[in-house]
Design goal:
Elements (H helix, E strand, L loop, with lengths): L15 E6 L4 H13 L3 E6 L11 H11 L2 E5 L3 H10 L4 E5 L5 H15 L6 E5 L5 H13 L2 E5 L12 H9 L3 E5 L2 H5 L4 E4 L12 H8 L6 H5 L6 E4 L11 H4 L6 H21 L2
Parallel strand pairs: 1-2, 1-3, 3-4, 5-6, 5-8, 6-7, 8-9
Length: 283
């Protein structure tokens, strides 16, 4: 699909994807919308930021109505419970584009990027640095546990519950047989890593007034040249974007030879096109 997109140019002809956004995202909207266009379909953007699901009408009614109009629903929301309820009542596929505990479409793109660069997904070490109390970290832990990666999650987990990994995610990874290290030790996390990953220290919803305090807390976990030197010689650097140079990573890292962040961003579109195709036709 990535190497021969023309072969799928009519795969979703006359199909409609309804995109529900409670949280904004440049990459999510453009990648899904462009992907639908490339496969002959159509995407509709609808903001629910000012009119949350379940407020003016029940989620049950919303799901039933939308199922009469569209072929797919994609939702990027604040609460996982909204996705779950919408999926339960809809008669068409519902794609989780992000919730408070997961970012599954990003994981599809990340997996594609890792396989393209490493030739495999198993027997690799991925180290995440910075704000570990977020949905990207949690899904990377799950992804690694499912696929047989060693995962190291490194951040200020000694600073209290606001900076710690949710225990439910830890338990989930254990049930999946995962090999997950949660630590404050940068060297222990970086040493022997094949993939280095970080994300914004200021996720959507965090007030700007906390920026300076969070900078001080997370700066010891910045991915810089010294951290990359601790990793394997052929390691790669990933960030799901947007990125702030000088904060979660230095410019020399994100713009350096090990960075694959723009391939990673492009792969959002390719991975999501594949997802839509499978939802329409099956494996």
């Amino acid at each position: 699909m990535k190497t021969n997109p023309g072969a799928y140019s009519d795969a979703l002809k006359q199909c409609t994807l309804l995109m529900l956004f409670e949280k904004p995202s440049l990459r999510t909207r453009v990648s899904f919308e462009t992907g639908m266009t490339q496969m002959g379909g159509h995407a509709i953007f609808y903001s629910i930021a000012d009119s949350p699901l379940g407020k003016k009408e029940s989620l049950s009614d919303t799901g039933k109505v939308l199922s009469r109009y569209a072929d797919f629903i994609m939702a990027r929301v604040n609460k996982r419970t909204d996705i779950k309820e919408l999926a339960e009542v809809s008669t068409i596929p519902v794609i989780n584009a992000l919730d408070d505990y997961a970012h599954p479409c990003q994981m599809l793109a990340d997996l594609l990027t890792i396989v393209e660069n490493k030739g495999r997904s198993e027997d690799l070490k991925l180290a995440f640095f910075g704000d570990v109390a977020n949905n990207v970290t949690y899904d990377l832990m799950r992804l690694g546990s499912i696929l047989g990666m060693e995962i190291a999650v490194c951040g200020p987990v000694d600073k209290g519950d606001d900076f710690a990994v949710e225990q439910s995610v830890v338990d989930e990874c254990k049930q999946l047989g995962g090999n997950v290290l949660i630590t404050c030790d940068v060297e222990a996390a970086a040493s022997g890593s094949d993939i280095v990953y970080c994300d914004s220290w200021m996720s959507y919803g965090i007030p700007d007034s906390e920026a300076e305090e969070r900078k001080q807390i997370f700066m010891p976990y910045q991915v810089n040249d010294s951290v990359m030197e601790m990793t394997n010689p052929d390691s790669i650097f990933m960030n799901c974007l947007p990125a702030a140079r000088g904060l979660e990573q230095t410019a020399s890292v994100i713009d350096g030879p090990k960075s694959v962040v723009f391939d990673q961003a492009e792969n959002r579109m390719h991975a999501q096109k594949a997802l839509l195709y499978v939802l329409k036709y099956g494996f």
